[in-house]
Design a protein that fits this description.
Elements lengths: L2 E2 L19 H8 L16 H12 L25 E4 L9 E4 L4 E7 L2 E6 L2 E2 L5 E12 L7 H6 L21 E7 L2 E10 L8 E3 L3 E4 H9 L6 E4 L3
Parallel strand pairs: 3-12, 6-10, 9-11
Antiparallel strand pairs: 1-7, 2-5, 3-4, 4-5, 7-8, 7-12, 8-9
Pathway: Cell wall biogenesis; peptidoglycan biosynthesis
Family: Belongs to the YkuD family.
Pfam families: YkuD
């Protein structure tokens, strides 16, 4: 059962670590590959920070082939601890399970053999945190976003999208969405794509969980419908 810490409208546990700017309305609504070391052979050297930065630049680069081309993320606004990476993660959950750790702003995809892919995330703000087990009931690419009635009451400016905001770069759900269900019913919670690197590592949403677009597309491609999702207590 999902335990809601407030209104529901809408750890660093591992041991081994390896955009277009959104318009104001998007944020306000949400608030309601190893690098080769060949250069060493040429007599130069590479620092760990340099390696991570080069890898992150590729990981979070532009995606021009998308329906709505996605620009490179401004990784200068992203704490390196939130870069996508493979980590050690001990769990009894089966491979493929998604584990959300809101206290530490991470999402894990369990890979098996004690490993997981770890993504940096934004999560629900105070009063909107929840925890429990769910599953991916459906998946959407460039989904239409419809603000819940509770959000419209809190933020009347969202009323113009009461019949839905078409998919696109400014849509709060972004390029990919995993819709979370329990017992056949939609919980109104999602794991969605964000184009705002400076929100990763913060609590800003109405209970949903956001990954950078490049990370969300990576996770989405590996996540079938019915995948188990475990949201840990914050």
């Amino acid at each position: 059962m999902i335990v809601n810490g407030g209104h529901a409208d809408s750890g660093e546990r591992d041991r081994t670590a390896l955009g277009r700017p959104a318009i104001l309305s998007r944020r306000s609504f949400l608030a309601g590959s190893a690098v080769g070391l060949g250069a060493i052979g040429l007599g130069s050297c590479a620092t760990t920070d340099g390696i991570l930065l080069a890898e992150a630049t590729r990981t979070y680069g532009p995606m021009p082939d998308e329906k709505f081309p996605i620009p490179a993320a401004d990784i200068s606004k992203l704490d390196p601890k939130f870069y996508r990476r493979t980590v050690r993660y001990e769990t009894k959950e089966a491979a493929g399970t998604i584990v959300v750790d809101p206290a530490n702003f991470y999402v894990y995809r369990i890979e098996g053999d004690g490993n997981a892919t770890r993504y940096g995330a934004n999560v629900g703000r105070d009063g909107f945190l929840w925890h429990g087990d769910a599953y991916v009931g459906r998946k959407s690419e460039w989904a239409t976003w419809t603000p819940p009635k509770e959000m419209i009451r809190r933020q009347p400016e969202a009323a113009k999208y009461a019949r839905g905001m078409p998919g696109g770069l400014d849509n709060p759900l972004g390029a990919r969405t995993l819709h979370l269900y329990q017992n056949g019913a939609y919980t109104l919670y999602t794991i969605y794509a964000s184009s705002e690197p400076d929100t990763i590592g913060s609590g800003i949403t109405s209970g949903c969980v956001g990954l950078l677009s490049q990370d969300m597309i990576h996770l989405y491609a590996r996540t079938p419908v019915k995948t188990k999702v475990v949201v840990l207590p914050a």
